[in-house]
C-alpha cells in the first residue's frame, strides 16, 4: 500500500502542529467560534448532538493492520471504545473532546493517516472498490489512480473552495461495487480496442434531496489524461456551479441545468486547452505509484482447497459463512472475505476497539496485513488462502464478527441518524436494528437471498436510501418520526434511483412494512434465483404498493 | 430560538462544553451541568429572555458553544425536553453502545 514520502510526512505533521495551535487559541478565547469553525471542519472535526465528532479519511478504503490497531487505540483512549465506519470509507469517532483532537491527529500522522478534507466544500476522500486488487472480475487495480487523485486533490489551491463538496469514486471492475454513478465524478477502468487502459467517465451523480444518476460523458479517457480531464471537469464546475443556493450547488445540478451535451462540450473545450500542459500523467510516475499497490507475494496454489471443502462438508455454520462472506479472488487458491459489521440487532458499521484489533491480527496472520473498508459499512480481508478460511472464520467468530450475512437482508446500510447526527430528522440505527432482529433467522435470510436495505435519517441521504433495493428515509412530522419507503433503487452498474412507493409509515409500523415488501417478493418471484431487484424490475411497484397499503388499512 | 411560539413553554438553556463537547445545561447558579435535572427553567417569556442573556454571556466568554433555549415539560418528578432531538441530546443515544467496556449508554432502549 502507499507509504508517505518525506513531503507527505512533513505536510501532515505541519498540519497537526497548525491545528494544535488553532485549538489552543480557540480554548484560550483568542479565536471566536465563527473564526474557528471553518478551521476545525477543514480538519474533520464536527460538533454533533452529544460531542465533537472526528471523521478520519481511509483513502480508497485501504488499511494496514498497524493503522487499524492505531484506530482501535484511539477508540479506547479518546472515545468510548468503538468507531463507526461510514458509507464513504471513512471512520467516525462520536465522543471526541476538542482538547484531545491535536493528540489524536498526531497519533494518526504516526500511521500515515489524517482527517484533512473530510469536511468542507473541497474534494473529499477518494473512494474505490473495496475488492480492489483482488476481485476476479477486475480489469485493473483502481487504487493507484485513486492515490494519484488523492495527491492531486489534497489542498489543491484551485479546488479548496468549490461551490459544494465533491466526491470521486473509482472502480476497476465492470461490476460496480463502489457506487460510482452516485458520485460527482465516477471513473471506471476499461480497455479500448487496442488494449490500452483508460476510463469511462461519469459526472453528476449524487443523492441527497435531489438524487441523480451520473451521466456518462466519456466512453474512453486515456489513462495519461486523467488529471487533465478531472481538472477540466472541476474547473467548469468551479466557474459555473451555483453558489447562490447550497441546495443547488452540487455539480449534478449544473449538469442537469446546462444539459449533458453542453456540459460535455464545456469540459472538452477546457480539456483541449489543458491537455498539453503539465497535467499529463507521466507513465513513470504512474508506475511509481502503482508499485505501492503491487500484488502481495501470492503462493502458487491449486484452485481447489481440500481443507476448505472438508470444512464445508463438516461444519454447516462455516458453509453458510463461506456461501455469503467469501468471494472469488483473481488468484487461484485465494478468496476475499467480508467481515460483517452487521450483527443481529447491532448498529451497522460499528466496531469496538477489541474487534478492530482482532481484525488487524487476523489480517496480519492470514491476509498479507491488508484490510479494506467497504462503503457498505463492512470490513474486508482481500487476500485469504482458501485453506485458511476455516481458521479465519473461527477467529472472526471469536471476535463476534462472523455473521454470515454479506449482501443479505440484515446487511443494512444505515447512517448514524438522530441518535448522533445534528442534521438528522429521525433515528435510523434503531430501525436497522429492529429489521435485523425481525429477520434474524439465518435460514430465512438465506432463503430471501440478495437484497440491499439502506436507511437514511434525513434527506441528505448518507445512508444511500435512494439506491437501496428497499430504501428507508426517516423524516419528522409534527414531532413524530415517520419513514418513507422507496423501492427498486440500485447503486451498481445498473444504477437506479428508487421510487417512492406511497405514504410513509410510523416508527411502529416500518418494520412490518419492510416485511410486507419482502413477503410480497417471496410470493411473486419466479424462483429463488430471481433476486429482489430483478423481481421488482419485472413486476414494477404495483404489487408492492398494493400489499403495503392494503395491509395498512 | 429566534421565533417564539404563541403559547409559551418553559425552556432551559443548553449548549455544548467548548473543550469537551459534552451536552450541558445552565444551572441557576451559573454553572453548566451535564444533568438536565439541575437546569434553570425559565417559566415566563421574561425569564427566558433573561436566561438567554446570561447564557449568551457564557458563549461570549468561550465557556460553551451551540447555545439554544429548548422547551421542556415536567413529567412527575422529572424534567424532559419536548422534542425527541433534545431528549436524545439530554439522555444519550437510544441504542446500546457497542463498547467492550461496561456499557456507558445513558438511556434505555425505547419501546418501538
UniProtKB/TrEMBL annotation, chain A:
The source's superkingdom equals Bacteria
Mind listing the UniProt keywords for this protein, alphabetically? Answer: 4Fe-4S, Heme, Iron, Iron-sulfur, Metal-binding, Oxidoreductase
Q: Which residues form the Nitrite/Sulfite reductase ferredoxin-like domain?
A: 52-111, 347-398
Identify the Pfam families for this entry.
NIR_SIR (PF01077), NIR_SIR_ferr (PF03460)
SUPFAM superfamilies per the UniProt record, alphabetical: Nitrite and sulphite reductase 4Fe-4S domain-like, Nitrite/Sulfite reductase N-terminal domain-like
Task: Say yes or no: keyword Transcription present.
Answer: no
Signal peptide location: none
Domain Nitrite/sulphite reductase 4Fe-4S spans what residues? 119-271, 409-547
Query: In the UniProt record, does the keyword Heme occur?
Result: yes
| InterPro entries tied to this protein | NIR_SIR_4Fe-4S, NiRdtase/SiRdtase_haem-b_fer, Nit/Sulf_reduc_fer-like_dom_sf, NO2/SO3_Rdtase_4Fe4S_dom, NO2/SO3_Rdtase_4Fe4S_sf
Question: Which GO-annotated molecular functions does the record name?
Answer: 4 iron, 4 sulfur cluster binding; heme binding; metal ion binding; oxidoreductase activity
**Know the name of this protein?**
Nitrite/sulfite reductase
High-level lineage = Bacteria, Pseudomonadati, Pseudomonadota, Alphaproteobacteria, Hyphomicrobiales
TrEMBL record, chain B:
Q: Which domain of life is it from?
A: Bacteria
* Alphabetical list of InterPro entries matching this protein: DUF2849
A UniProt-annotated Pfam family:
DUF2849
This chain's protein is named DUF2849 domain-containing protein
Recorded source organism is Rhodoplanes serenus
Amino acid at each position: 500500500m502507499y507509504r508517505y514520502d518525506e513531503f507527505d510526512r512533513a505536510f501532515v505533521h505541519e498540519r497537526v502542529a497548525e491545528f494544535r495551535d488553532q485549538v489552543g487559541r480557540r480554548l484560550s478565547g483568542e479565536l471566536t467560534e465563527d473564526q474557528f469553525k471553518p478551521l476545525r471542519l477543514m480538519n474533520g472535526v464536527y460538533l454533533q448532538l452529544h460531542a465533537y465528532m472526528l471523521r478520519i479519511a481511509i483513502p480508497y478504503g485501504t488499511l494496514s493492520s498497524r493503522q487499524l490497531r492505531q484506530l482501535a487505540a484511539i477508540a479506547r483512549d479518546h472515545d468510548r471504545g468503538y468507531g463507526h465506519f461510514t458509507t464513504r470509507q471513512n471512520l467516525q469517532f462520536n465522543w471526541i473532546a476538542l482538547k484531545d483532537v491535536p493528540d489524536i491527529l498526531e497519533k494518526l500522522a504516526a500511521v500515515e493517516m489524517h482527517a484533512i478534507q473530510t469536511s468542507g466544500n473541497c474534494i473529499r476522500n477518494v473512494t474505490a472498490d473495496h475488492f480492489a486488487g483482488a476481485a476476479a472480475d477486475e480489469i485493473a487495480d483502481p487504487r493507484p489512480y485513486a492515490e494519484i487523485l488523492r495527491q492531486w486533490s489534497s489542498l489543491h489551491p484551485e479546488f479548496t473552495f468549490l461551490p459544494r463538496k465533491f466526491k470521486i469514486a473509482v472502480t476497476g471492475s465492470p461490476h460496480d461495487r463502489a457506487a460510482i454513478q452516485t458520485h460527482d465524478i465516477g471513473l471506471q477502468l476499461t480497455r479500448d480496442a487496442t488494449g490500452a487502459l483508460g476510463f469511462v467517465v461519469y459526472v453528476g451523480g449524487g443523492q441527497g434531496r435531489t438524487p441523480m444518476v451520473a451521466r456518462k460523458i466519456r466512453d474512453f479517457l486515456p489513462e495519461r489524461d486523467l488529471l487533465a480531464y478531472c481538472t477540466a471537469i472541476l474547473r467548469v464546475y468551479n466557474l459555473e456551479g451555483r453558489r447562490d443556493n447550497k441546495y443547488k450547488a452540487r455539480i449534478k445540478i449544473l449538469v442537469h441545468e446546462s444539459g449533458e451535451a453542453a456540459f460535455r462540450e464545456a469540459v472538452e473545450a477546457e480539456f483541449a486547452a489543458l491537455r498539453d500542459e503539465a497535467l499529463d500523467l507521466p507513465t513513470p510516475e504512474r508506475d511509481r505509484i502503482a508499485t505501492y499497490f503491487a500484488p502481495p507475494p501470492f503462493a502458487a496454489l491449486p484452485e481447489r482447497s481440500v481443507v476448505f471443502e472438508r470444512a464445508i462438508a463438516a461444519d454447516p455454520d462455516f458453509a453458510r459463512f463461506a456461501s455469503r462472506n467469501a468471494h472469488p479472488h483473481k488468484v487461484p487458491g485465494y478468496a476475499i472475505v467480508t467481515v460483517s459489521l452487521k450483527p443481529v440487532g447491532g448498529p451497522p458499521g460499528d466496531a469496538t476497539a477489541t474487534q478492530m484489533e482482532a481484525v488487524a491480527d487476523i489480517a496480519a496472520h492470514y491476509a498479507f496485513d491488508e484490510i479494506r473498508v467497504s462503503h457498505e459499512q463492512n470490513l474486508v480481508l482481500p487476500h485469504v488462502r482458501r485453506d485458511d478460511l476455516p481458521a479465519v472464520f473461527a477467529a472472526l467468530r471469536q471476535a463476534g464478527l462472523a455473521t454470515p450475512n454479506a449482501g443479505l437482508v440484515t446487511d443494512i446500510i444505515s447512517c448514524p441518524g438522530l441518535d448522533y447526527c445534528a442534521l438528522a430528522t429521525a433515528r435510523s440505527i434503531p430501525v436497522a436494528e429492529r429489521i435485523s432482529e425481525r429477520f434474524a433467522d439465518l435460514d430465512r435470510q438465506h432463503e430471501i437471498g440478495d437484497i440491499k436495505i439502506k436507511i437514511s435519517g434525513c434527506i441528505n441521504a448518507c445512508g444511500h436510501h435512494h439506491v437501496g433495493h428497499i430504501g428507508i428515509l426517516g423524516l419528522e412530522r409534527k414531532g413524530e418520526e415517520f419513514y418513507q419507503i422507496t423501492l427498486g433503487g440500485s447503486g451498481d452498474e445498473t444504477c437506479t434511483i428508487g421510487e417512492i412507493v406511497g405514504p410513509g409509515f410510523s416508527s411502529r409500523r416500518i418494520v412490518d412494512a419492510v416485511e410486507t415488501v419482502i413477503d410480497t417478493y417471496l410470493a411473486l418471484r419466479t424462483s429463488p434465483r430471481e433476486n429482489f431487484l430483478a423481481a421488482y424490475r419485472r413486476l414494477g411497484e404495483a404489487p408492492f404498493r398494493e400489499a403495503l397499503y392494503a395491509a395498512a388499512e | 430560538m429566534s421565533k417564539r411560539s404563541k403559547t409559551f413553554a418553559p425552556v432551559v438553556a443548553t449548549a455544548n462544553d467548548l473543550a469537551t463537547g459534552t451536552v450541558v445545561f445552565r444551572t441557576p447558579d451559573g454553572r453548566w451541568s451535564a444533568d438536565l435535572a439541575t437546569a434553570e427553567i425559565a417559566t415566563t417569556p421574561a425569564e427566558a429572555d433573561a436566561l438567554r442573556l446570561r447564557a449568551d454571556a457564557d458563549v461570549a466568554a468561550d465557556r460553551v458553544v451551540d447555545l439554544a433555549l429548548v422547551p421542556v415539560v415536567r413529567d412527575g418528578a422529572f424534567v424532559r425536553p419536548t422534542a425527541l432531538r433534545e431528549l436524545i441530546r439530554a439522555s444519550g443515544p437510544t441504542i446500546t453502545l457497542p463498547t467492550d467496556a461496561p456499557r456507558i449508554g445513558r438511556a434505555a432502549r425505547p419501546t418501538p
